[in-house]
Amino acid sequence: NAGVTQTPKFQVLKTGQSMTLQCAQDMNHNSMYWYRQDPGMGLRLIYYSASEGTTDKGEVPNGYNVSRLNKREFSLRLESAAPSQTSVYFCASNRKGTAGNTIYFGEGSWLTVV
Amino acid sequence: AQTVTQSQPEMSVQEAETVTLSCTYDTSESDYYLFWYKQPPSRQMILVIRQEAYKQQNATENRFSVNFQKAAKSFSLKISDSQLGDAAMYFCAYWSAGGTSYGKLTFGQGTILTVHP
Question: Which residue in the set A42, A48, A100 is minimally distant from B105, CB to CB?
Answer without folding.
Answer: A48
